[in-house]
Amino acid sequence: MAHLCSAHGVSQRRACDVLQVDRSTVRYQSKRPDDAELREAIKAVARERRRFGYRRIQVMLQRQGIFMNHKKLRRIYAEEKLQVRCRGGRKRALGTRRPMGVPDAANQRWSLDFVSDAFTDGRRFRILTVVDDFTRENVALIAFICLQFLLHCYDLFAGETSLYFSSF
């Protein structure tokens, strides 16, 4: 607006009429106080607690004795670009996987799998199934209720044989 007035030698009223702008918008002076101390306090909490959003930061500031309107806090939070970033999705395998070789004889490779179910009283149980990959016959079915029994079974199988285990 100032450029138009000085370059063409017209008044502010005439320049506002030409541009169809209200004079009050040109003359407006902001009365908003300086938020430098608040901004620094918000940034300090955000640096300390990286996963906190603006609501949790407001609680932390209130504990420090700094009270402000949640709308003002959110405005400053957004202006400082402190938004919490979304976490990445599921990690996927990179590259192509090498296919597993086919066993040449029985007892070269076994596969393990778990089957689970529940009793009528609600207690859950699991069955460890062991299958020979060459003959496709069931080597063992081990039922258990607690996890420690599973660890005992794994030690049993790993101790008695030097087989390569793979899971389904």
Question: Can you describe this structure?
Answer:
The protein is an alpha+beta fold and 168 residues long. The protein has three domains: 27 residues, no CATH class; 37 residues, no CATH class; 59 residues. Helices cover 40% and strands 18% of the residues. The protein has seven helices and four strands; from the N terminus they run H-H-H-H-H-H-E-E-E-H-E. A four-stranded mixed sheet has the order 3-2-1-4, covered by helices on one side. A hairpin with a 5-residue loop joins strand 1 and strand 2. Helix 4 crosses helix 5. It is elongated.
Characteristics:
168 residues; alpha+beta; 3 domains; 4-stranded mixed β-sheet; 18% strand; elongated
Give the arrangement of secondary structure elements.
Blueprint: H1 2-8, H2 12-19, H3 23-27, H4 36-48, H5 54-63, H6 70-79, E1 109-118, E2 124-132, E3 138-144, H7 147-160, E4 164-167
Parallel strand pairs: 1-4
Antiparallel strand pairs: 1-2, 2-3
Helix pairs in contact: 4-5
Question: Could you give a quick summary of the protein structure above?
Answer:
With 168 residues, the protein is an alpha+beta fold.
